[in-house]
Amino acid sequence: xxxxxxxxxxxxxxxxVTIGGIGLQSFTNAATTKKITIxxxxxxxxxxxxxxxxxxxxxxxxxxxxxxxxIESIRNENPHTLLLDAGDIFQGTPYFNYYGGELxxxxxxxxxxxxxxxxxHDFDNGIDxxxxxxxHADFQFISANYDFSNTIMDTHTKPYKIFKKNGIKIGVxxxxxxxxxxxxxxxxxxxxxxxxxxxxxxxxxxLKTEALCDLVICLSHLGYNxxxxxxxxxDLKLAAATKDIxxxxxxxxxxxxxxxTIVKNIEEKNILVNQVGCYGIYLGKIDFYFDSxxxxxxxxxxxxx
Amino acid sequence: xxxxxxxxxxxxxxxxxxxxxxxWLTKIEGKQIQITDTLPLDSEIEAYIKPYRDNIQxxxxxxxAYSIRTYSKSxxxxxxxxxxxxxxAVYNEANPIFKNRTGKDIDxxxxxxxxxxxxxSKGDVTKRTAYELMPFENSIVVLEMRxxxxxxxxxxxxxxxxxxxxxxxxLTINEHDKIVEAQINGKDIKPNKAYYVATNDYLYNGGDxxxxxxxxxxxxxxxxxxxxxxxxxxxxxxxINPVIDDRFIQIK
Lengths: 305, 252
Hints:
heterodimer; B: 5'-nucleotidase,  domain 2
């Protein structure tokens, strides 16, 4: 017994020394830099295979197996990486017609997606069809403005999720597009659509003010911008009308941006809106650098796009 | 025990005293990375997809029927063999479903010429053929229209003079575009009679400027895709041998 006590104490002592060592190192470091990488897709629309060589527009582009390789190499470079999808995972190739989204969810799980929001096409087999595939998804569905409480999806989505990567708190909330007029009501059943701006005000208060997240990300399927319909809520409008969001990852409008858009929010702070078109042809990559040196940060946040 | 406590306290003390310094967001870098064929393929993912892909290929390529000729939507003026085939297939496959649900029969079908997305090639006909002909996910809807609304539908067909696929509607016009004969199911159209017209949801919602559908009295959503109706029809027939007929003609 005595011997065992000694071993226990000794191992505790060793642990202490090790922790102390790390602590000392971090004390002596003048400045700490942390990097968080956010990877994202949207509107992949069941494009599991790359486009064929004869395709008129996207020959040899896309494909989940190549995306997987790219994501892995980025994770090897920075393990503090989040992988997100902004909806419309379903519909577009026979993979969906044959398997109802099973393979899409299984592959996203294999690629270790952290979260996805729900697009209008994700209701294409009805809300029951979406529910039926949930067992294949090892990632969280995030939607703050679809009230699913009277549907089979109740309790299977979260309005937001907080991730911790390298000590950085990242709050992610989801927004979906108005379904009325876009999706047959028999498909979405009693899903209630809530106002995105009001919901965002709640979400940013919870994530930034209460949970003290270092980063707040909105995963949106609202659409990038509606030039012909300027009153319609979009990512650009949401960005300008709210505060405390750092990044909006968008979808729905299949908008190919040459680079992420910098938008001034309601407090005149610059934030980013990004979307990567559709069909898994691009992967969006946003790196956030945090620094403990106040002198560097005194210059504000530099955005390089 | 005392020593353990002491160590434990030290441990807590160390953790708390070594509180992380406040971090500021100093830099954001964003870019889009194209997925091209120069990127390495993840072989494990590729192997995982393969059985699914193979199964789909096998199923898509399994032979359902045989087409004795190659049919194109450009062969024919006001009606085409391929369009007649598609409209008749929609009637034949959708009517039993509609009748089962409502006790009524579909009176006529109208699709759109632009909705025929490929040729129907001579030889084996497979599910892939149906995907090529109809890659879109449009579903069949049936709506109730009065005879006077059918008049608007007919005016549209006469004005456009395109071979929009129809079934059970017979329309003959003269060289001045005047109606010589307009019948549904072999009978003259009565202004106040209710007709059950099958089309797809795209056209019902005003696609191809078919604005006459939106004034319907009632709409029946069959939840039946046009493509699936084609596939079901391929399964029932052995040979595909449609013809250009007299369902929409102009006498000169």
